[in-house]
Input
Amino acid sequence: MDGQQQPLPPDGQGDGQAQGGGQAPGAQAGPNLATFDTIMGGVMMEIRALGLVSKIKTFAGLPEKNVSEKFRAWLKDMNRVCRALNASPDRVRATALSSLSGAAAEHLSRFLTSNPQAGWPQIRATLAAKYLEESDMQMAQRNLHALKQQQNELVEDFCDKIEQYAEDAYPGHNLNDPIVQVTMVQVFIDGVRDDAMMKKLLRDRPATLDAARRIAVQEQRATRAFNITRRREEPMDVDVTTKKESRVDELEKQVQELKKKLEDQEKRSVATTVQNPYKHEWASDGQPICSYCREPGHIYRICSKRLNKGKNSAHLN
Output
């Protein structure tokens, strides 16, 4: 069909002409409105040609432990395909039927028989009421409200994550529903890392997540431009390195000078010790103690015992 449905022929034409012989005389012309089965058959052929059904994991609705988890996986695939098909009601109905089997397919067939014009929101709601547990949705809603933007995570990626979690938290709802949009916007505002961006969002109070995304992207770009400008005003890395190296050289020079002063002081101290081998000691009453005889009242240079000993030695010689 080349992706397009053929226009219906005008009343009284088509059936006989398609067979090449015209309508038989006396035959009553039936209603020329296409039946539900005819529409579904043509659309399903178109979808198979596009290969969209093969991208959806088949859901059978069997009573098993992880039936809710399998239904959520099918629901995510269907949401992606519906967006790709622009949510055409005929295509959505055909896609849903083609991707279901067993009890789930029978349940949807009965629903569409009673509601032949039902769109994706109604199909999603009736299947969610049957296959999703309330505890799973409550847990998904808690996980949605706990979302936080990670370090180095772009705001666009954070918005996409919020939409993915919202699909689990509100499986029977359209994400464009105003209540769901308000919830996603609040999660986004509470979860962004940048304080200036959060203040901007609180001031503007966007009504939808897409509006919040646009505001945040503008703030994100402005922050990047500001940081680039700031970096240009800061000293280059080469200048910083040169200053550090100069400071190190200066400190090394000061250490060498201090080391030299200590060495000179040590040399002077040694020379003083050699020139004055006998240091004066002092008694408690303030009189000097001779370093030769160890008696107070005089010093080595005028010690009579030392001098007399020297004279006696000279007389004997």
Remarks:
- Residues 1-32 have pLDDT under 50 and may be disordered.
